[in-house]
């Protein structure tokens, strides 16, 4: 038997609304808890010309943000309460409909792969992406969506290293290649992050030749296995890089005087 269509009427239209008039219902199941860290990150990269449309539910008592509360708060901070935010406004939603709209905005988006995002950043002339690409190319390699002999697929690790210090990427890749050769296994996300930790914390103190002699004693897989064994269950490559960096520093420091020892992260 066919299911009867819903007779609940919902209006939908675009409208520019002052950010001071956009409310957040903290009791709404569909609303995320406000995350200050995320808002602070958005504030650092704020560009009003790149602000996407907010999803808003127009209730009897006002307009409530279903998607876009963090960027709305940043707009309020930087642009002021009268800043007009482009909104897709829904009028006549039930609480269930609001929840479904929230899910559609946050669950049904296909995640962008790190490499795809990187290429878009290059096209947009993002300074960090341009720097990362230049440093990787300076050592005869290229950023790629897959790792091979001459291609580095650890995009997230490269972007992290690039944000830490200029020249760090080139130095990390050179040390890695000198230790294990130009091989797909050399450009490992976890290892690149760990080497970055070691170098950035001891920039002028590290003897790269000694570091290479330390690293080449074991393959990347053995270094990783030892670090993973010392990591709390559930840790990703980022958290596992910390004990890995610690292991590298411990081996490097053997038979060195206190004044030449590296500091572990």
TrEMBL record:
It holds the Pfam family DUF6551. This is DUF6551 family protein. It comes from Dactylosporangium vinaceum.
